[in-house]
Amino acid sequence: MKASRWWDNRERFLQAYAEPSHRMSVQANQPGLRKHVLLKALPGRGRRRNPWTTWLHDELLQEFHRLRKAGLKMSPSMLVSIAQYILTNSHHSEYTRAFTPPGSDIPLYDRLNVRWVQTFQDRFNIVQRKQAGKKQLSPQKQLQIEKEVAFHMGTLKRGFESGEFTNEQMVNMDETHFIVDMDNGKTLSFKGDEHVSYADVVAGSTGMTMVVLLLGGTSAKIGTPMMIFSNASCSYPIRGVPDKVPGVAYRTAQKGFMTSKVFAQWLGESRVIRRLPRQQKMIIWADNYSGHTLTEQANTELSRLNAEVRAFPANATHLVQPADSFVISKIKDAWTKRWEAKKVEMIRAGEWQNTVRSDGSWSGALRNPGKTFYLQLAADAVRDVNAQRTKKGNLTYAQKAMVRCGLATVNGKWSVDQLSDELQMIIADHYDHFMGKPVEDSAVEDESPDQSAGGQEASV
What we know:
By secondary structure, this protein is an alpha/beta fold. Strands 4, 6, 7, 8, 9, 10, 11 and 12 form an 8-stranded mixed beta sheet that branches. A two-stranded antiparallel ribbon has the order 1-2. The chain is globular, with a radius of gyration of 26 Å. The longest helix has 24 residues, at 139-162. It has 15 helices and 12 strands. α4 packs across α11 and α11 crosses α12 (371-387). A hairpin with a 6-residue loop joins β1 (23-27) and β2 (34-38). The chain starts with a helix and ends with a strand. 37% of the residues lie in helices and 13% in strands. It folds into 3 domains: 3-38, no CATH class; 51-128, no CATH class; 139-458, 2-Layer Sandwich (Nucleotidyltransferase, domain 5). The relative contact order is 0.13. It has helices spanning 3-8, 10-18, 51-70, 76-88, 108-111, 114-123, 139-162, 260-267, 296-305, 317-320, 327-348, 371-387, 397-404, 421-429, 431-434; strands at 23-27, 34-38, 126-128, 170-179, 188-190, 207-215, 221-222, 226-230, 249-253, 282-286, 307-311, 456-458.
């Protein structure tokens, strides 16, 4: 670069160098030395944008400003929905939903994804603020967990090889907790903003639980979900909320979590779980959460189903439970996408809770769309995930998860190679326990919360 050009643009260059996110320390050519390099091109430089991208970026920025001021909590997936809305309702002479960029056979509408949104965020310095940090287990406790996981994998291997287990017998149930507005405290904002806020939804602290069931066999899929709504008196059905939404069922609990009473009701719900044909015994794999305690009613339902409940190794469901193996995250993604589209719709329609209460107060938040909406949302989210297939093998995500966690075979054969990389490493490190050596009880107390307790909480 010529010195004269650098001098003419020195303010922009110095500003770019001062931005920490634009710089990175890398190894220099000389041993022991490092240098700083720019990660991003300066404004006005870099790859030239297509005119339709520039147009859509500008339109999206205007909507971002407007909706952000309205208090909508923003996320990359929300921006995708907004960009798609702009194209769908565009009055531009050329750039509409049907527009296909020259040289491409894919419409611009179908090319809008989170990666595309990232270029928009980079251009306008829009970032997502988040919190990070996890508690860790002691090395002794981690070792104990790995040994129990290896023994569990060996039990599955021997069970499939002996004929005790079949793919059709294996099912996995788990719970995931949702907050009404799915609030994780994160939203998109411009760098340097000191005040960040967004719209809440009435009763935004009210939780609900989705009971997820993974069915095995050749047509492995996510079964009909059951929602657990919070209700002080545990009334069912709730007045004004008939349990008639196709593809989903519901029950109630005081705090909206799984309890032993609701677990028995789940076992007795014929829309959710049914007896297997040909006198096959169903094996329901679940975590060791206290809500899965078997009551007299639960045992009666298990007898009717010809089923038994088996527990995963404690504190290890993130390793061995198929529902935790990206299936629940896929459901949360589908749920969030539809929920955010609904919130955009509500803001556009002005559905705010501005009615003054008898005490003179009023919330000003978005109206709660109601439990029937959440029932339909749950059914649609599960249906969306069941329709998806993996790029490799064309499997459902439920089938892939069951295979990776050892609860299903591949072409009738169980092998270590089918498992996730982490499980394969654990088996290699504790092969004697995988081959059947019992694991001695550990004297080390685990002070961390049981990851199995109550399933996952969705905070997306």
